[in-house]
Amino acid sequence: MSAPILNCPCCKHFIGAKDRSEPLTCKAFPKEIPFDYLFGKVDVKSIKECNNGIGYEE
Q1: If you write DSSP's letter for every residue of 1-58 in order, what string do you get?
Q2: Per-residue pLDDT at 5
């Protein structure tokens, strides 16, 4: 079984979480990064914008 490769933590807009009980956030998704974005169902590197006019940037 292989682990998913997460793109979000490599993005310059990634914020993370204050602790393990909090959701992962970024500038595009300030309340919570959607599961499909975080775990690769949406290829954030190939789309122009994730949300709120903000897209993936290394």
Answers
A1: --PPPPSGGGSTTEEE-SSTTSPPEESSSSS---HHHHTTSS-TTTSS-SBTTB----
A2: 64
